Amino acid sequence: MSKVFVIAQGGGPTAVINQTLVGAVLAARRRHKDAHVLGARFGVRGVAAGDFVDLSALTEDDLRAIAATPGSALGSTRDKPDNAYCGRILAGLRAADADAFIYVGGNDTAGTLQVLEAEAGGKIALVHAPKTIDNDLVENDHTPGFISAALFVAEAFVSIDLDFRALPGIYVGIVMGRHAGFLTASAAAWRRDETDGPHLVYVPEAPFSVDKLVADIRSTFQRFGRCVVAMSEGVTTEGGGPLAESLIPPSRLERDAHGNVQLSGGDLGLALQERLKQEFPKVRARVDTFGYLPRGFIGAISERDRQEAFDVGVFTIEACKKGSGSVALQVAEGETRLATVALAAVAGKTRLMPAGYFDAAASRVTDAGIAYLRRLLPSPPPISTRLL
Amino acid sequence: MSKVFVIAQGGGPTAVINQTLVGAVLAARRRHKDAHVLGARFGVRGVAAGDFVDLSALTEDDLRAIAATPGSALGSTRDKPDNAYCGRILAGLRAADADAFIYVGGNDTAGTLQVLEAEAGGKIALVHAPKTIDNDLVENDHTPGFISAALFVAEAFVSIDLDFRALPGIYVGIVMGRHAGFLTASAAAWRRDETDGPHLVYVPEAPFSVDKLVADIRSTFQRFGRCVVAMSEGVTTEGGGPLAESLIPPSRLERDAHGNVQLSGGDLGLALQERLKQEFPKVRARVDTFGYLPRGFIGAISERDRQEAFDVGVFTIEACKKGSGSVALQVAEGETRLATVALAAVAGKTRLMPAGYFDAAASRVTDAGIAYLRRLLPSPPPISTRLL
């Protein structure tokens, strides 16, 4: 009897999610001579529709080329299946004679598998492989995809700070992250001392106030002659309200049918830019929205991230033997190790930055937070700023 | 008699402008045993104020570390000196006993030297070293700083296109460039075929129409199921009017005291985002403004750019012997060579993309344009998109 693995990718692409895909395919082949590995196109959508590509037919060279490519090679989806949809997914898995379904993604992806698990009756192993640039999965020390995105953000802020040393002013870079601030905090990973930017960091874990931001910028600017700020797009005000409400005149706020404020990174950026113009009329002030740039930048792929993502893929094939679960990337005594935890332990949960990683009063990442980030990132690039 | 060189950096920083600085310092030392090299802080501002750092006192190791650092190590300025200011600059050069003044920058920088030349009476050699990510200096095949910025943009669009293959939608990336489209065109340098993004490119050299943009996006989206667009922040409408006027409702347009529309990349991005939402309400549409990210990104420095910028610095010391002029980076029969041309040949002039590099009707870079960019950039990174 041949062993059939179905594999799919969910949620936002990363620089290394294809390493996980290819790690799983190569391990399945190596461990099961008659393994059949089907890739579902566009996540569970492809499973439900029976839209599969036969990954067993590819040469190792083809697979290595796919692994080295950022983005989700099979396509992805943001669908959050309801019960009826889950029924179609299970029907698709059964029609494919699947022994196991490996789904690479974040906590939404784990959530989908949890719903399927309740229905599948244990006949198909449902294995979640972690992936997210947000680094917000519980049970994990860090997640595949995060380090490469963090590398981009760290490199960007070293570079922007050098730019603003040369032509002083105020800079705000808005970084992805709705709930967890790890990626934004990475902006500060390589600071050498307090003169280096980002001088101020704002993450979703701490309540945000525009008045405090303006005051923080003013005092930083007075002290260093420039101010570089890293801000999560997910920052919220003390009352939990979206930041836009305290920045944009009510007449210009757009609301959806539920009365919720519609906010994109771009809107936030523009509103901030206007406020900075008012507060610092004579200063060069610029707000950039990094948007999708950090999450799959082909020029900033961490070697460690690449290897860990591949190893997670390999491990999923072992994990399938024990039934359903979520692969977790853990670190104990300095050693990285992979384990399987229950889907319920991960699904729908969001890991925030530990309180000790961020000093909300000072709007900065603490030494403990920096140490965590430096443990993951490559060494800082050598730079010299001795002439100014 | 010791030989005194004053050197300064003007305009926007780049990834390799410090290579030029250090190339000049090392060459001055090597060719003139008693050379004294003074770096002026913040461009001509430092010259006028007598704010110098003694570059002769630095070790070669220190200098190599500075060379490897993006940004302008001496600081920069956007000052465009009038006659009185030029008088103070000349006084500063004379007070320093300068035999030569080397100013690294773009066409504004060459323009400052041209004004100084008229006043200086030939006693001080005034040498312009080219630098600009816009690649818009006449007399040059390309300019130091451009290739590294182009590398960032090419990598960004390869990566974004992979992202949008996985999660289809519409993406517009707005790239720096007020008048010349070289940097934006670099987005297309590594396209393999017509399925690859950017599917559409808009540069300042061709008149822009929002209606054409929307029609172009619609037909591209129908054809490929996604659409990736690269747009210069400097695009203007047929009549030469700023793009904002055709995008933003008149009630929301802000005008300055002269009635000119106030427009930043962020405003343009937001206006586009709103228009795309109206036109394609059910499609994931995102506009990102790259802003300063491409111009000094420490993770995307071209080896060729680094070497050429250094060589330009070395050459300035030779050029000083012949009096004032602008160093030009030329290519003849496939060989790169450095020459000196008159300051007047470069100052205040803007080199646009040759007409043959861009097809305005198709909104795409031509094969000739791609060939030019590929001649400068490193080889494209290997990627595989065979599963979709």
Keywords summarizing the entry:
homodimer, 388 residues, alpha/beta, seven-stranded mixed sheet, four-stranded parallel sheet, 13 helices, elongated
Structure explained in plain terms:
The structure is a homodimer. By secondary structure, chain A is an alpha/beta fold. Helices cover about 40% and strands about 15% of the residues of chain A. A seven-stranded mixed β-sheet of chain A has the order 3-2-1-4-5-10-11, sandwiched between helices. In chain A, strands 7-8-6-9 form a four-stranded parallel β-sheet, sandwiched between helices. Chain A has a two-stranded antiparallel ribbon with strand order 12-13. In chain A, α1 packs antiparallel against α3, α1 (about 15-30) packs across α11 and α4 (about 85-95) crosses α5 (about 105-120). The longest helix of chain A has 21 residues, at about 145-165. Chain A starts with a strand and ends in a 12-residue tail after the last helix. At the A-B interface, α3, α6, α10 and β9 of A face α3, α6, α10 and β9 of B.
